[in-house]
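As a next step, the fold was encoded as tokens, giving this record:
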Amino acid sequence: MVSPSWFTKAICILWDCRGALWAQSSGGDLAVQEMVGTVNTSPHVRHVSKGRILWWISIPVLVAASALDAHSSWGKPEGNPLLRGSGGRFDRKSLSIKLGISAGILGGEYIMTRHHKGDERLANAAYLSSGASNLVGAAVLGVTAQRNYRRVPQ
């Protein structure tokens, strides 16, 4: 029997997140609140859009994939000229650039979603597109990390 790899586990986590979004869309706000264990009984229950939930789920997924990619690249020759440190390897300088890029992307998404706060339709579209792009970016970083782990250090 083959044990599941880290990539399979990540897919399972994403599938669970998809289930949370499905539960919210089919059962209303109560389904998501029951999943996290808090039910707001006040008459002023705030609706949380599916796009916003997707965006909040995608942030830790992107951060984890970025951290995994950084770990897999540490001390190895770096193919990206922007991230090459001293001696052409991934080092502290490379990590700080990578963290700065990730923080800039997430900060830009936050500003973009806040800019459309008055229009619920545009805000949901901004959350959905940001969440989707974060998940695609996390998938790319995950595949890159897997390739880096298989590469023999030189």
